[in-house]
Specification:
alpha/beta; two-stranded parallel sheet; Rossmann fold; single chain; 7-stranded parallel β-sheet; binds NADP nicotinamide-adenine-dinucleotide phosphate; 356 residues
Length: 356
């Protein structure tokens, strides 16, 4: 066969191919076969609608299947967490995930919210490490919890305004052979004016207690939790960290830092099975307002803005188990704090000189 002939044949084949009705021009082209009979009876407009519907369903299918995947993964995680939580509550004898009895370390456990955390966690079946400067109230609490729930309680005296304390605490806990699964950074104090303290070391100690010690406690106690794949960290902040009033450059900003710090940690550690929450209480009945100035403020304020420590702690522990990164305690504060954060409200607060 000569070259010319070959060329003619291939042209002929091309012509015959192009003469065949293509899928897009054939009236039954949408699906072909028997179903083509059905589609063939449809008007062209209906076919266009069907095609665009199919395209939309197809487009939806990808995100939908991704969503289904995410829901299934979340359900799996939730199931695993529930199993761990049930073990933490003492309901599951040994899930194989945690080999030792759950134990919580609570700073500022000699009074107020810290004492209440100890009571509620002990009632949940956890052993405890209590930390504060005053030993006697902690020993009395340890005795109470041993008698009530058979709780194993370690008491450690420590001043968290000293920068060496967190590492010393960690070493002490290791030496005693204690495993800490739950860290409650609660110690704190009110009533300092950072720019009017007599010497800088007082201001520095305050910042150490309110912020640096919390970071250091996380620095030392979180890595072993990561290794075990389970951990709970609750940092006690305040509504004052949400709404820093213009004249408060001392207490409120330290709590704002704890809120931001906890949010970041929560996002970073979730994948390791560690939940972090910043608990933000409003005015709570504790020894916190024991100074003359704060006692006067307490007496002159309406009763409905005050909450009991047991309510604040119960809500905080629930928020921690639910994996909330921040939690405003008290219904009143959950309503008013978002309103107070509006720019107009901020101006009003400044004008009236309100302190949170
Ligand atoms: N009560 C409220 O209205 C309120 C509102 C929002 C947020 N908060 C926060 O809640 C947390 C607990 O306060 P609270 O109301 O329970 O007050 P609290 O009754 O005065 O208790 C404070 C606890 O912190 C401990 N503490 C203070 N300085 C310490 C230090 N240098 N080293 C170690 N421990 C120290 C105290 O123990 P020692 O004196 O024995 O050391 C005490 O156990 C604080 O972080 C506070 O900022 C309280």
């Amino acid at each position: 066969m000569d070259q010319r002939h070959k060329g003619t044949k291939s042209v002929a084949r091309l012509v015959s191919q192009s003469a065949r009705p293509t899928r897009s021009t054939h009236p039954r082209s949408l699906s072909g076969g028997d179903s083509g009979v059905i589609f063939g009876r449809l008007k062209p407009g209906a076919l266009t609608i069907l095609r665009s519907l199919w395209l939309q369903v197809g487009c939806l299918f990808v995100p939908f299947s991704v969503l289904i995947g995410k829901v299934l993964t979340a359900a799996e995680k939730h199931k695993r967490n529930r199993q761990i939580n049930r073990f933490m509550m003492g309901a599951v004898p040994d899930s194989g995930i945690l080999m030792s009895k759950p134990r919580a370390l609570i700073t500022g456990a000699s009074a107020g919210l810290g004492r209440e955390f100890a009571r509620q966690l002990a009632a949940d079946g956890k052993d405890l490490v209590l930390v504060a400067r005053r030993v006697e109230p902690m020993e009395a609490l340890a005795e109470e919890l041993k008698n009530a729930y058979g709780t194993d309680v370690d008491v450690i005296q420590a001043d968290l305004s000293d920068r060496e304390t967190p590492v010393a605490l960690f070493d002490e806990v290791q030496q005693r052979g204690l495993v800490v699964d739950c860290l409650i950074n609660n110690a704190g104090a009110a009533g300092i004016d950072l720019l009017r303290t007599e010497d800088w070391s007082t201001a520095h100690d305050y910042l150490e207690l309110m912020t640096s010690s919390v970071v250091a406690m996380c620095y030392f106690f979180i890595p072993p939790m990561q290794q075990r794949g389970y951990g709970r960290v609750l940092n006690v902040a305040s509504v004052a960290g949400y709404v820093t009033t213009p004249s408060d450059y001392s207490y409120g900003p330290t709590k704002s830092y704890l809120i931001a710090f906890s949010r970041g940690l929560s996002g970073a550690l979730r994948k390791d099975g560690i939940q972090v929450t910043a608990l933000c209480p409003g005015f709570t009945h504790t020894d916190f307002h024991a100074s003359d100035k704060l006692t006067r403020m307490k007496r002159s304020s309406p009763k409905f803005i005050w909450y009991d420590a047991d309510v604040v702690v119960r809500e905080g522990l629930k928020a921690l188990e639910k994996g909330r990164d921040t939690y405003l305690s008290g219904r009143l504060y959950r309503y008013i704090i978002p309103l107070m954060r509006l720019p107009l409200s901020q101006r009003l607060i400044a004008a009236l000189g309100i302190k949170v």
